[in-house]
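Look at one record.

>
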Amino acid sequence: MATVSEALSIALDHHIAGRVAEAETLYGRILEAIPGHPGASHLMGLLLAQTGRAAAALPHLNAAVAGDPASPTYHLNRGKVQDALGRTAGAAASWLATLRLQPDHAEAAERLAPALRVLAETAFDSGALASAAALYERVLALDPQNLPAAFDGAMAAKGLGRLHEAARLAEIAARLDPTLLRARMAEAEARRALGQTERAIAALRPAVALDPAQGGCWASLCLLRNELGQRGAAVVAGRRAVLAAPADTGLLVRLAAAQQIAEKPRPALAVARRGLSIDPASAELHLALGAALDAVHALEAAGRALDRAGRLRPGDAAVLAEHGRLCERAGLAERAAALLQWALAARPDDGDSWVALGRAALRRGDAAWAGRCARWALRLVPGLPSGLLLAGEVREEQGADREALALYDRAIAAAPGIGTGFSRRAMLLLRRAVGDVPPPRQPSGKRRLSVSTLGHAGRFGNQLLQYGCLRVCAERNGMELETPEWIGRLLYGLDDPLPGQPLPSLHEEDCGVPALLDGRALVNADGHDVVGYFCGDTAPLAPHRARFRALFTPVGAVAERAAAALDGMRARGRTLVAIHLRRGDFGRNDRFWIAPEGWYLDWLAETWPTLDRPVLYLATDAPELAERFARYRPVLAGDLGAPLPGAEFFTDHWILSRAEHVAVSNSSFSVTAALLNPALRAALRPDRERARLVPFDPWNGPVLLP
């Protein structure tokens, strides 16, 4: 009688030779004699599976594994049968067991990866994201080139809020398939949420290179560029998004927002109107239209647009907040307070709305409530510039000047380009330094022209341009200019009447300044509050340069300081050369750019030897730069006496306005000094295109270069 081993060998010979009936009979007899025999169970299971009887095969393979759990082959083949029966989880478990017993088992690894991926997809589809994420990671450990596992793993990680993991896996997916735009966008989205803005942009660059018509990528780039303060680049990206999908009103809303941030309200206005021609019932587009109209100070039209947005989307916090802030700026304190309270009931974390509510309270004389609003805004957004300004105004109103100054200083440090903090600090300190100044004149009864934003829209140079242009316009047309309290009253003894009843707002581009300067008053300029920075072409103002200069003549103690500073310079040489290097609030975005000191040094090296006993004055908010100019022994403001409290910049501006040779920054500060300079022989400005200083006529060209 044959032994079990001999019988099993004979059966296997039949099996290999294709005599499956004989083999099955012998396997069966062995198992009758020795139930659960591992070898016979394994071979019987294989035979049944090979002859289309997988369901019958599985119990035999289970028995084989139970009889000899240390056999990698038994686990491997059981997994194959389980997989054929659709039992993917069991198959994966069998193949994992194979790999535990034999880690280098190639077939088990090859079969396990797709099985795990199927399990991961099932888990993902059922919402079991944690299980899916773990399974995708195991797939990638087995098969690092598995693109679906990398991308789907990124999606699972994103759903779990595991942003670092999502970014890493999306980056892997993009590397495995550089044409997979969804992977690039997923990585960018995760990195943006992590605050990794530059890496998010880097993820999107290849995507738009591969498919320039991919509107979604351009739209994301628009947001990211704005977050980096790259306003011009953000607008370009927004335009590319709209070009890719011209009828997508969501992209038009985003482009309008980018243009608003870039201080291009008129293009934003055009974009919003274009969007409304496509979808007149879009609340978002009416909101964008209202914001753009507000930015060009068409306040009545802005109010109508925001009313429409509110009707389309009643109770929308964004619409209520924008409308409330508009009403506050228009002086409608009660209406503003009502709208802002509704907005804050829906979104109590909106710091800007708390500030606007506080300003409305301050307009009504309720400093205590305004102070509470400021504190709440600053708790929500520590360091919020508008919150610091409101808090400073409240403390100033309450007589706490020292605290107010500290708050204004913090606001200036946080947002040096905002004129309000600069102006309020300057006036608070200057009043102490220069004493009494002439009180504002009483209104004469002439036609009114107002500039109520003077002191808020821009800093010193902008304020001189705003006041000077509009004062000349008013005089040329028999009107009277009204101004709020501003630094010019203290420095130059200007005594214009304070603003009377609010006038309709009008942007400088809409009021026809060149015609006004010619004495041709336009109907729509009379009786308006004109708003703008007045940094355009100075040529229309040139015929009135004498009057413009006369307006800005220092008075009293300021005049004495100015004379002493100029005498100090004249005592050092015969030819005054002045350079302006603005740093503190420049270089933060692509609009306010910094020219290298090397451009100025190149000009000095060429010009200095040709001058008669030259002396160099360096006007700068970064005195450490004087070391670069050491060979010319530059004079700084501090060398000419103590600074004027609140107007520490005044000596710089004054010497720039009296030097024979002036090299400006791309800044209204030094350009206005050049405009006021009666002794000017040569004026130069930085030019980015030519990468050097170039001669310019301050009375014939734009105040700022792009």
Summary: The chain has a mean pLDDT of 89. The beta strands are 447-450, 479-482, 505-507, 529-531, 575-581, 614-620, 661-663, 682-687, 692-695.
